[in-house]
Amino acid sequence: MILTTKDLNIAYGDNLVVKDLNIDIPEHKTTIIIGANGSGKSTMLKTISRIIPYQSGKIILNGNDISNFDTKELAKKLSILPQSQEIADGLTVGELVSYGRFPYQSSLGRLSEHDYQVINWALKVTGTDVFKYRLIDSLSGGQRQRVWIAMALAQETETIFLDEPTTYLDLAHQLEVLKLLDNLNKKQARTIVMVLHDLNQAARFADYIIAMKSGKVIKAGKPEAVISAEVLKEIFNIEAIIGQDPLTGKPMCISYNIAEGADKNEKEKYSDYTNAVSNF
């Protein structure tokens, strides 16, 4: 395991939002965190990347307590792409990606020859080298997201955290970003940890899934163990029909209904459809 939490407690003021959290993030795998809004997914991600503090417990990275790392040292080990990013007007793609070299810069703040080599590599591997001299504001949502991933890659970290990297993107751009991350994991051996809302995307691209509810882990494991009718009912309060993705063989949520409060006709339709899928 590359990262582990032990009895982690996270609070906003007096409100404890994550309690006694114990998770293991496997090395060189893609881990995806799922759960309803307010379940603590993003809070957990920000905490284990040390963006926000925690009240008690431990976060262990590569065998060392994360609190023992100074900021630049930690930034050489993990990078994070938050859900929303703010950039200064007039910044080019190349300039933004160069910010990923901050942990390695001296007090003079000058880029070395190696820095430029890493920046060009990050641009190339994400397919954003053709945009190097374009303004960030001129890019589409999918292109811009790839540039942010390039900046994270320029940090040369073995672990990359992403908070809902496909938000606000259309289906084609969502798939483009997820395939890029999958490629980085498979070919660059990067450990990828991200929050996703789309269950089928999570099942398709994850090696390991953590399902959360009310600040607690309800189930963690391979997609086949987590994307099940029982788990989804517990974390989302839905009755889900689970099938198999014909392209990947992974579990797939075909349809779902609200577990409580559904009228009789809807429940009968659900039951008939469930039987049909089972027989198929």
Automatic annotation (TrEMBL):
The keyword Transport applies. One of its GO terms (biological process) is iron ion transport. GO terms for cellular component: plasma membrane. It is found in: Cell membrane. This is Iron complex transport system ATP-binding protein. The keyword Nucleotide-binding applies. Keywords: ATP-binding, Cell membrane, Ion transport, Iron, Iron transport, Membrane, Nucleotide-binding, Transport. It is a peripheral membrane protein. Residues 3-239 form the ABC transporter domain. CDD domains: ABC_Iron-Siderophores_B12_Hemin.
